[in-house]
Amino acid sequence: MWRRAGTIGIALYCLVPFYWMVVSSFRRTADIHDTTPLPSPWSLESYEAVFAADMGFGRSLLNSLVVAGVTTAVTLLVGTLAAYALARLSFRGKNVVLALVIAVSMFPGALLIVPLLKLFTAIGWINTYQAMIVPSMSFALPLTIWNLTAFFRQLPYELEQAAMIDGCTPFAAFRRVMLPLAAPGVFTTAILAFIATWNEFIIAVTMVNDQARQTATVRIAQFTGAAKFDTPFGTQMAAGVLVTLPLVLLVLFFQRRIVAGLTAGALK
């Protein structure tokens, strides 16, 4: 009983802020500070404001999708190959390489902003997609390599040997045998990388000041009300719902695959 009560308490603690965000997004601007559990009356005023022509929010959602999608795809391609090599090949300094990989992921990203800003200014990358994609990859790639290295280590090497005896090259054995077996781990890593990149803010707000290239998280922070310094809470709540909803649907739709990837190798 106490375990169930604790689980319910933790769930409520995590979900109540999201519930309040959704409720606030359906309030009228005049009622935004009400504390009732449900809007009265219900209104789409905030959602209409989000998609006003001068907001550019639809374009920012597309920018977020491009940045997160490209970052995830390239990170998976490079990270899967690197993780497989680290898991299967024996060479001097392999543990050092893995230690460096995880050390990079722990490095404070904020310390890299100024050097990256100077570099991208010098090479003309400011206000471009690659100015957001490349730094995001540098943070997503270590996590991908570390997770998938541990995953590939748990797969039996005998399966590759059997495939090569049947005529497969080492790469063909990896592509046809090992990669399908590693699909749960790869898929879970892809979801985590996509979510991290989709929610990224500090790099995007530093490298891009052109509204046509801004991501959704940056655009929300720049919403203004009727006057310049007004904070449009209702519009921000509606935009927050629209940004969060794709991630929630993604996790719910692929819940089984994510759980399979997270628990793979837990039992032998």
Give a written overview of the molecule:
There is one protein chain. This protein is mainly α and 268 residues long. 70% of the residues lie in helices and 0% in strands. It has helices at residues 2-25, 45-50, 57-88, 94-106, 113-122, 130-153, 157-165, 170-181, 183-198, 202-207, 216-221, 233-253, 255-263. Helix 4 (94-106) crosses helix 6 (130-153). It is globular, with a radius of gyration of 23 Å. The chain starts with a helix and ends in a 5-residue tail after the last helix. 28% of the residues are buried.
- Which regions have little confidence, pLDDT < 50, spanning 5+ residues? none
**SS strand fraction:** under 5%
Radius of gyration: 23 Å
Tell me, briefly, the overall form: globular
What is the H/E order?
A: HHHHHHHHHHHHH
For the termini, the CA-CA separation is 31 Å
How many β strands by DSSP? 0
Helix percentage range: over 70%
The SS-based structural class is mainly alpha
Q: Biggest sheet, in brief? A: none
Mean pLDDT: 86
Number of helices: 13
Keywords:
globular, single chain, mainly alpha, 268 residues
Give a short summary of the structure.
The chain has 268 residues and is mainly α. The chain has 13 helices and no strands. Helix 4 packs across helix 6 and helix 7 packs across helix 8.
Task: Map the helices and strands.
Elements: H1 2-25, H2 45-50, H3 57-88, H4 94-106, H5 113-122, H6 130-153, H7 157-165, H8 170-181, H9 183-198, H10 202-207, H11 216-221, H12 233-253, H13 255-263
Helix pairs in contact: 1-12, 3-6, 3-9, 4-6, 6-9, 7-8, 9-13
